[in-house]
Amino acid sequence: LCLQGHTVNGSNGAAEPVMPIPKFKQKFGQIIDIRSMINESTKLNAEEGCDPNGADRVLKPLGGYLGYNSEWRELAQVISRDIYSQNPNVKWDDIIGLDEAKRLVKEAVVYPI
Q: Which top-rank group of organisms is this from (predicted)?
């Protein structure tokens, strides 16, 4: 058992001080606001007079890939290719099983939006 700043009884019953856990500085990469990019794209489509239900519009690449490094640009291209331009009319209940996978997708994608 490792508790920072406390003592723990060792195998011989004697109290041993616990070494503090070192704190590492984390460096984060570029932060990209996907929600604002999607909102901007939706707003542009509405200004151009596209059908709001998306039946006749062609989705534009996310943000034009400007300001991305090569890894983020590649990810944005993959996401843009995989976006459906029409509603396939599939409900969560239509997918049998995979409850854990559905829960993770909802937490990562559906709930933040």
A: Eukaryota
